[in-house]
Amino acid sequence: MRYESPTTVEAAVTLLANEAGKAHILAGGTDLLVRLRSGFIEPDLIVDLKRIDALKSITMESDGLRVGAAVPSAMLNEHADAVAGWPGVCEAAILIGSTQVQGRATISGNLCNASPAADSVPAMVAARAIARISGPQGMRDVPVEEIATGPGKTSLAKGEFVDSILLPKRAPGTSDAYLRFIPRTEMDIAVVGVGICVTVDKTGTCTAARVALGAVAAKILVVEAAAQALIGTKGDEAALNALAAACSAAATPIDDKRGTVAFRKEIAGTLAKRAAKIALSRAEKNL
Amino acid sequence: MARVKLWGSLSRMADGQKEFEIDAPNIDRMLTALGEAAPKLKPILAKGVTVSIDGTLYRLDKFQAIQPDSEVYILPKMAGG
Amino acid sequence: MSQVHVTTKINGDSTEYLCDADETLLDVLRDRLQMTGSKEGCGTGDCGACTIILDGRPVCSCLVLGAEAEGRSVETIEGMANGEELHPLQRHFLNGAALQCGICTPGILVAAKALLAQNANPSETEIRYWLAGNLCRCTGYDKIIRAVQSAAAEMRGETHAA
Amino acid sequence: MPLDRDPADRTYKVVGHRHNRPDGIDKVTGRAKFGADLAAPGLLHGRILRSPHAHARIKSIDTSKALALEGVKAIVTAADFPDHPQVLEDGELTNIRYNVMAREKALYDGHAVAAVAASNPRIAAKALKLIEVDYEVLPHVVDVELAMKDDAPILHDHIRTEGMEDAPDCPTNVAERIELGYGDVEAGFAEADVVIERQFRTGAAHQGYIEPHACLANISGDGSGDLWCCTQGQFMVRDVCAQLNGMDVSKLRVTPSEIGGGFGGKTTVFIEPVAVALSRKAGKPVKIVMNRGEVFRATGPTASSAIWVKMGCKRDGTITAAQAELKYQGGAFPGSPVSMGAMTAFACYQPKTLKAIGWDVVTNRPKQAAYRAPGAPMAAFAVESIVEELAHTIGMDPVDFRLKNAATSGSKSAYGPTYSDIGLVETLEAVKAHPNYAIKLGPNQGRGVASGFWFNFGGQTAVTLNLNIDGTVALSVGTPDIGGSRASMCAMAAEELGIPYHHVQTIIADTGSLGFNDVTDGSRVTFASGLATIEAARNAAKVLCERAAKIWGIPADAVTWENGCAVPAGPNAGEFPPMTIKELAKKAGETGGPIAGHFEVSADGAGPSFATHLVDAEVDRETGRITILRYLIVQDAGKAVSPAYVEGQMQGGAVQGIGWALNEEYIYNDKGVMENPGFLDYRVPVASDLPMIDTQIVEVPNPGHPYGVRGVGETSIVPPLGAVANAVAAAVGARPEELPMSPPRLLKLMKEQAQPLAAE
Fold first, then answer.
1. Which of A71, A122, C125, D584 supports an S-S bond with A214, CB 3.0-4.6 Å?
2. What's the structural domain count of chain B?
3. Is the Cβ pair A270, D623 closer than 8 Å?
4. How are strands ordered across the β-sheet holding D354-361?
5. Nearest CB to C111; choose among A1, A29, A99
């Protein structure tokens, strides 16, 4: 196995494109190293992104906030604009693992692991985040929900990698929230995760909503019916109950060591309600 | 004569007899006498038992003295963590 | 397999080593540099016993490649005391019986040091969440949390040295 | 050794005060050497190939490709552990041999099948993949009740149920039936005004020590050598490894490293005999370090259980009948702690009639090892749940109900013998008087109480104390220090010799330097090694007095030891100024040679320890998530030699119990493969899960120890399962019957039967 730490995106693309064997991207490494050490993967090349300055920064661009692929969760949460503008994404990112893991783990890595239970991904999906992909054919932008195609599988072609994620600029009265359920207070993988982004008008009526569920299907689920349940309401009990019912109905989870089908379906609704309340109250403050 | 009481299922190996009157100066002699009185107990006694004399548990010491008025229990082998 | 040459700063000292590309920083510290103070409890980032500070952030050294340390700054438990003089956290752990078997202690001390560097007066809840990635199976955490609190108070100058 | 005198009259100068532990500085600076911290020139790294199947016949093992790999120096399989007579004579040793390396069958997921030593760990890992094992997969069983069925897959053809006269002569997974009790329980139930019965289940929990098993064996060409390892008992490791490898015991010296937690899980061997075999074969030092997955899959978790309990009481609270049937699976070999479960189940009370039946069952799971008060916590969970429910049903305060029935000094224990001085009543009264008992609870909150008992043990113990030239003391004990025991040994030696605490240095000796010691288990160390330390110090003091007598020219019995000095015993002995230990130490060579004291004993009279725990919990009714709000432990320590470490034992045990109650369990898939072999999904409590753990030490002196010391290490894990379950039952109005009370289980329970309990 070779280890390379290029200093430009172009060099990284070249390394990946020229590798005949199996190549893996090292961003935070908190998942890659676990798989490497367990023998689950046997790479021929590891390309470390953390020497590429451009990927280590968070920049406000005209259409939103760009978060480089080498930015750890802890750094994202130290960025005042990120926390103020995208609280749901930031709170999801800071739930990944321990303090020690947060100093390394990145939202790009979380996305590319393609785990259905990844914490930051439902939040990013709700926020309509856009992944920028670099590769031999140049650069392309795709919605984050198109990256994972199933557990552990992505749509990235050989030589491609996510170099940054754009959190699109938000309309006034927009905010988000992320909640997950775990049995302990920390250190667990989400049994259910819910990311919700809403926009409200001056009357407090919800005019737009996006609801994404994690850990209840092979991929992150966008629940349109749940969004519709909120739109046009002020988040009253009936609307929230309809939202919860839509989420529970949309969930197609499995029984596993972390939870049962019945439990996950029910909790998807419970958490969606709670997350919607938080998102709505945050959105009103952004008017 | 000390009263030697058999813990629970041990008495099944002594044809249901739960209590024996045994005259023995110490645990070792008492166990030998008990084995003679109830031969089916012998293999279990050989495997190791805990003996309680007046409330104190003895897992090892076979030469602990037994007083004529002692209360003696034969309990299973025990281990801790 | 050709080895990677790494130059890095460990506890303030420039250090060079060769390591395999797939070798973790924890293995480098323990097996190549004989710095066995950092412990491996799980190898998956779930226990925190291998916590070090890398460029100012606490990380699990089992989830860092040795090769990644090139040009960086690494702080380990071995660098926490200043000669004979213990760090206040070390002293308060000792005086407060905040360790039993001691296997988690180095990782917890390093993680706590990183906490106090960024938050001089953490609440009990903040300490508990910061240290959630450091498992201790002996103490039930009570005396650990109290030791961090009392060390922090001393470092803020509110109390005298323990 | 009996209690010296009325402890109320005794003032201790060192014992009972708070001192820093002698190993403390090394442990806060990273200098302390644990199992995996040793290296040796030319070191090879061992790795173990493990069965991926729960139950499979091993038809063949082909190691040729692995042996051909560059860097591979030795491979061992079951064939390298042949039939030495001393092994075959001993049933348990035969089982250990089978457990450390599978023979005709692999009996559980993770069972060792072969082992490799190679020049680095990565080559060793590669070699494992080249070993070809031909398995015939067999039907498996991991559930205790399924394993008891007539049509269950059978693990061992030779097992017949012991303890049953009418047991059929055919293979079974039920290794033993035990029964105990007194009186006629049916009459007892007939006398009762209220009778409650329930069926409970508990999952298998792991000790969860943070340090994985690790060892380094270095066996030389003449077949003798050294082994360094983390263990609760170096002498046990030596004896077992030597016997399994056909070595004379004298040929192997075992040095215990610092131990990163044990809790019973390091009272046996797993990798140590394998490392010895590999090192002997390779002619080089071999180190084996388990990874966390191996620790979960292939060491010794505790038993899982199914327990039925029925109890009856009168309106005034008197328990008239107590009955239980306990089924414990202890993994692939006989030996689950069910008999101790049965004996401890009702040990806190004095039911008028009692009957307990226990079943020891084998399943396709790793061979269980001791875990802190083995067998007791699950039984206490079931009994304390019913006790709490009885109290509520008759409208009696749960602490008063326990006081009404509590075992007392001089009362007959539920398992037979009469109790000497015990402190259960004192713990209950302290709980009742504690401010936590009066705090008003909010909505969705509940309060639970539970008591617990553990026997405590003594065991074989040898201690040597040597006086140094400057009057300081070197103390060698043979019981690994798993929670600060060296501090207690220093304190007891200093107390006896009348010298400062820091003048005593305690080490844990290797097997070549000290007589045999049983493993650190049964909460025995502060009691037994402590008792031996006191006696060794007294023996040394006697020698010191003899030396002073020689110098003064008076009879030895005319000199006594007081406050660190030899002094004339009375006015008739003559007028001599006191001689300090330092002066006598300096003159040792001239007065007869080195001064030492030693003591060897099979220590008994450990004296049981009781505890009562009080917990407040809050339940999120929408998710089933439980938060522990407050936790109080009151425990009898007899005499707390090192109060801070006593508190630590109490807090640590309680939190392990909380983990067992809330989330910890072995989860198996339908192939019998463990699904959660890591700290990610085997969920031990983390710091943010817990409140501060309040403690109160009660001291009812143990009549079997000079200072009244009782072991404190194990009792603390007995009450929490029941206490937390009782708090949750009070909060939600439904009684948890299955542990852990993970959120899916609790949410389901609430949906099925949530309604306010009769009197709550």
1. A122
2. 1
3. yes
4. D174-182, D354-361, D319-329, D304-313, D194-202, D738-739
5. A99
